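RETRY 2/3 - previous attempt timed out on the joint model. Re-submitting the same 681-residue input unchanged.
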Amino acid sequence: MSENEVGKEILRLEHISKVYGRNKKEAAELAHKGLKKDEIKQKTGATLALHDINLSINQGEVFVIIGLSGSGKSTLVRFINKLHEPSTGKILYEGKDILTLSKKDMIAFRRDKVSMVFQHFGLMSHRNVIDNVAYGLEVRGIEKEIRYAKAREMLHLVGLGDIEEQTIDSCSGGMKQRIGLARALASDSEVLLMDEPFSALDPLVRKEMQFELLTIQRRLKKTIVFITHDMDEAFKLGDRVAILREGRLVQVSTPQFMITNPADDYVRTFIESADKTKVVSVSQIMQTPTCVVRLTDGSTRALTQMRLNGVSSAYVVNQQMKLQGIVTAKDALDASASKKLVADFMLQDVPTVEIDAIIADILPIAVSAPYPMAVVEDGILRGIVTKASVISTML
Amino acid sequence: MDWFFNFPFKSEWDPESIDRVIKQFSINNKVFFDGIKAGLNGMISTLYNILSWVPWWGYLILVFVLGYLIKRSWRTAALFSGMLSLVGFFGLWDLMLITLSIVLTSVFLSLLIGFPVGIFMSFSDRANQVLRPVLDTMQTMPVFVYLIPAVMFFGLGKAPAVLATTIYAVVPIIRLTNLGIRQVDEEVVEAARAFGSTRMQTMVKVQIPQAKATIMTGINQTLMMAMAMVVTSSMIGASGLGMEVLISVNRIEMGRGFVSGMAVVIVAIILDRLTQSVVKEKEKSL
Ligand SMILES: Nc1ncnc2c1ncn2[C@@H]1O[C@H](COP(=O)(O)OP(=O)(O)OP(=O)(O)O)[C@@H](O)[C@H]1O
Ligand SMILES: [Mg+2]
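RETRY 2/3 succeeded.
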């Protein structure tokens, strides 16, 4: 994950609200009193699309906004390039409120700072592939040769080769969204807005595109605001995830934190729809290794340790706490007659997992491991993971 | 009980007052209207000169080639030029060219006015609300009504015919330009804006090209409505095929009426099919 490389705040949304229809003032007052969207609709006839959204988005992070249909995701993301305008609130880009920009400055802002990828691609069917990718550069008045060169580079970056001259209609869904992505990347803008970019694709292509996006993100380190209604996708891509419910933010946090500390039952239900093995890491379920013996211990000591902790095996470490092997109760018993040291009869073939691995990756080892797995970090024993705790994350 | 069966109120107002106002208006602005009339006549006769500069066989070949290019069928191509040669066969070739010059001038003016108005309506909801009923009225108003102000301002002849035809034929191009642009996929327009297009760039680079098929349909309909005015406008002195039809109706000459009526139909069919196929071709490639 790119968590560690995340920089300072780049975008900040302050008290953003949006009401559609009449009686905006009345609706806003009711919203402040905490009334729900449909109650407000009933009383005033106005649609409360968003209420008092406060967000801070950092440079270089993938910020995912997730919510059910109608929760206001599309509306919210369109505020950032002012395709829609909020009823109240501020949107600060590097500290400047973009909602107060003049028309001309807004156009410049869209050309240089933000670009967008759309759910149904938003491609222009009367233009061929390369003219679509080069569109953002074309409206800036950049020369044909230069913009084509840039567009070609972007097409290659998203894994599309020689399809420059093809019509949009001859492209498959996956290709179309790659073109959409290439078009957005061609502007070299800092922020990438993506409104359910993969929702219209079939599951296999969608997985491929998610991977592609992560790969590109690792290289280019854009700030991405990603909209989805799929929790798996949110947890897979997001450095941080915001859950939107009927126009209000319920929780904003890292996927890991959200899973262990869901803000309420709504978030919990949402999380249950996701495959947690892909999010939970080994460090979150490991236990402290209580039963540890040294290379120089004798078999009697090993047996005592196991009996005290009520287990049938013990991990062996050296002076630096580096994992050396494992001894089982049976081997220790056999060896107790001959006064051997642990080092002489331990098994060196130990099932180990890295501390930052995710559960989905350790499943194959977990299934076949005869003992609890040792969790290591740079070879040092950090904890153990039992089969039972692995299975409980899948429930 | 008389009030029960007969409408009891009657205005003392005199419809002729409108006539007087318009007449006065046309007299006061005589120079202006004469200028327009001269301009229109100039356009019509220039177009006529160009049209009659092309020899008759030029048209047959043109229709044949276009027919083939668009329909991809030798038979249709042959049928088109066969039908067109019938017009010459009836001895109506020159009248046809006169009619064409009036019709095409009207279509040209309709597009010149209608296209920008349609674009304006497409991005202004206010304009859309105001102009919609106006367009409805223009389309449902009996066409003869347009003849009266045309005559008042321009007298008899081709110029008022072009004016009346233009008023009648401008409606579909406005409507369909407006509709076509409004129908463009919202996301595509959003994409254009999101990448920093100015309003002009969005219109020219995205909205109009995306609406092309609908706009072409509008052009086709405008052309057909202009053709439909041919006979009507001959009542105010526009010469050509329409005049032939009118004369034979007045004199109850069945044969002459049929032949000139056929000629109008033939020209209309060929123009319709050629322009319609352009639309279909466009739709296919979309
Ligand atoms: N132009 C509009 N006029 C009136 N109401 C609107 C308008 N646009 C959106 N809304 C309302 O605002 C709310 C949020 O809509 P939005 O499109 O942002 O939802 P969403 O989360 O993107 O949903 P989806 O997953 O279906 O795309 C909805 O209740 C919607 O009906
Ligand atoms: Mg949406």
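Chain B is about 85% helix and 0% strand. Closing ticket.
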